[in-house]
Design a protein that fits this description.
Order of helices and strands: HEHEEHHEHEHHEHEHEHEHHHHH
Low-confidence stretches: 350-357
CATH class of the largest domain: Alpha Beta
Bound molecules: flavin mononucleotide
Distance between the termini: 54 Å
Largest sheet: 9 strands, parallel
Number of domains: 2
CATH topology of the largest domain: TIM Barrel
Number of strands: 9
């Protein structure tokens, strides 16, 4: 059995949870898996951090026995550090190691890792080759588009990835400089599918099961990876699983069930991280969950005024208990909120952007 068939056999569905820094921790991965995510990834873990025995890096690589199948995502600038970090993490027994070659963050790119590797395909291949040789479990890679968006570059990238021996290639169909408000270019995912035999996972702008099925149809990819589209809306995986190919929020819970889901998630973050570290994550997730309901802006100011997790959970309880209604899909407030959320998800909850401003 090849490494590709090994991992494909373990993925029992079409919807994969994307790696997301400071977001895809154990509680959120568990929630998404319970909602039907067929594969999940850890937040990115620095290979150098692992080799220096940095506690944050180790913490980000930890998962529970219930989480399989799961991939540990590594960010590495050199073949040796990629291979050594994999050897160090083998006792964790992930189903997959993923190499992040798409991160556009300046600090990561200046260190020669992430999307920077797409400008040096020989080194990109060497890193993937070193990782594949060091790993008894399949290795995957996550890439973006490069530079001037030509079809040739995507073909070069996926061929270079295949030369590196990877079992799966995820393509986030944007370049390093494409902002989130520009649509992902799914046609490049189709190009990748037509170029190599390695299974391709498509990524970019999946916000409903209708989007997921359209990407599967239009590109021929093996599965889709969802990042922003599951923040506060993890049932998107259930929607995808149930095969509704025109589906939007088919399994979205009403207020009472949202309260149960949100509170349970906030409590699991509190158990996992303790009050001090959990609080910023709890605020973020509470607002993601509440954003499509009437009055979310008021909740937002309340949550930023709380620095006690119990008080934060109480505010969320009061919010949803108060006969909340979902905003209608054509409500201008919801449309504006979703646009801001999608463009500025990383800053959305920090006070830099007023979601409903
Ligand atoms: C909050 C956040 C954190 C992210 N962190 C990572 C990461 O650690 N590793 C990675 O490969 N991509 C990361 N990404 C990129 C996503 O995995 C994904 O490729 C991108 O958001 C496009 O998918 P989407 O259109 O479904 O959001 C992150 C994205 C977001 C929104």
């Amino acid at each position: 059995m090849t490494m590709s068939t090994d991992i494909i056999n373990k993925i029992k569905g079409k919807g994969i949870l994307a790696p997301m820094l400071a977001t895809t921790d154990i509680p959120f991965r568990t929630l998404c898996k319970n909602e039907g995510a067929a594969l999940t990834f850890t937040e990115m873990v620095s290979a150098v951090g692992i080799l220096r025995a940095a506690s944050t890096s180790y913490r980000n690589a930890v998962f529970t026995p219930d989480e399989h199948p799961i991939g540990i995502q590594l960010v590495a600038a050199e073949p040796d550090s990629a291979a050594a970090a994999i050897r160090e993490l083998l006792p964790f027994k992930p189903d997959l190691f993923d190499i992040n070659c798409g991160c556009p963050n300046d600090r990561i790119c200046e260190a020669g890792a992430g999307a920077e590797l797409l400008d040096d395909l020989p080194r990109f291949t060497q890193i993937l080759r070193a990782a594949s040789d060091a790993s008894p479990v399949p290795v995957s890679v996550k890439v973006r588009m490069r530079g001037n968006d030509t079809r040739q570059t995507v073909r070069d990238i996926v061929r270079a990835a295949e030369d590196g021996g990877v079992a799966l290639i995820t393509i986030h169909a944007r370049t390093r400089n494409t902002p989130y408000d520009e649509a992902a270019r799914w046609e490049f995912i189709a190009d990748a599918v037509n170029t190599v035999s390695t299974p391709i996972v498509g990524n970019g702008d999946i916000f409903s099961s209708a989007d997921a099925f359209r990407m599967l149809r239009e590109t021929g990819c093996t599965a889709v990876m969802v990042a922003r589209g599951c923040l506060g809306t993890p049932w998107i995986f259930r929607d995808i699983d149930s095969g509704h190919d025109s589906g939007i929020d088919e399994h979205a819970p009403e207020a009472a069930a949202m309260l149960a889901m949100t509170v349970s998630h906030l409590e699991s973050m509190l158990r996992e991280f303790g009050a001090f570290r959990a609080l910023p994550r709890m605020r973020k997730h509470a607002l993601w969950f509440a954003r499509r309901f009437h009055g979310a802006a008021d909740l937002r100011s309340q949550l930023f005024a709380k620095d006690d997790p119990a008080a934060l959970i109480d505010a969320v309880r009061n919010f949803f208990a108060d006969d909340r209604h979902r905003l209608a899909t054509d409500d201008p407030l919801l449309i504006a909120t979703e646009r801001r959320f999608r463009e500025r998800v990383l800053y959305w909850t920090t006070g830099i952007v007023q979601p409903e401003g």
